[in-house]
């Protein structure tokens, strides 16, 4: 105010929050300058830092205390402050994500889907594929020109004989899978998981296989018959 007597004229084009922001920014710069010669703590060994980040990425629900305890079992000493400094910053509530979820359950998930193939005489053939998520292996497929709930249920029985039935079966909301199919699958101890309407990405392994079949085979030949 002593240096600039007409400082009030500037308030016509500025908001009070702007001046407050300037003051806070100057305050941060002042303390940054004042503490510029502070002696930093020695950094940890790169192997310890890499281990902290690896444990955090593999166990996103762990806190600093859990990581410190696990590190101590390996003979590594790190304080909670050190772990919080070097671990990756979380952007929100820890979540395993769909990729991790599918990885954890892939051994008990199978998926099925239909796709249509036109023949040279414009006859439509319906192809059913059943794929195991764990190794993305096709465990069964069949072709028909008149699919029904009973036929589809029989294909599931053929795909998983004896005690090989998965815990979950991922499929879309096709009307072919009627009441007969639902009762037969339920009797096998399989829980059906239906995708949302018009959401093929929720059944990615089956859709990717169908795309590969089309790109590598069906798009290059003319189908004569079943």
The CATH class of the largest domain, by name, is: Alpha Beta
**Structural class of the secondary structure composition?**
alpha/beta
Order of helices and strands: HHHHHEEEHEHEH
Backbone shape: elongated
Helix content: 40-55%
Looking at this structure, what is the CATH superfamily of the largest domain? Ribonuclease H-like superfamily/Ribonuclease H
Ends distance: 92 Å
CATH topology category name of the largest domain: Nucleotidyltransferase, domain 5
Number of separate domains: 2
Extended strand count: 5
Arithmetic mean pLDDT: 85
- Beta-strand content estimate: 15-25%
Number of helices: 8
Oligomeric state of this protein: single chain
Going across the biggest sheet, name each strand in turn.
Answer: 3-2-1-4-5
From the 3D coordinates, which CATH architecture of the largest domain would you assign?
2-Layer Sandwich
Q: Explain this structure to me?
A:
The protein is α/β, with parallel strands linked by helices. It has two domains: 46-89; 103-220, Nucleotidyltransferase, domain 5 (2-Layer Sandwich). The chain is 40% helix and 15% strand. It has eight helices and five strands, in the order H-H-H-H-H-E-E-E-H-E-H-E-H. A five-stranded mixed sheet has the order 3-2-1-4-5, sandwiched between helices. Helix 7 (179-187) links the parallel strand 4 (168-171) and strand 5. The model has no long low-confidence stretch (mean pLDDT 85).
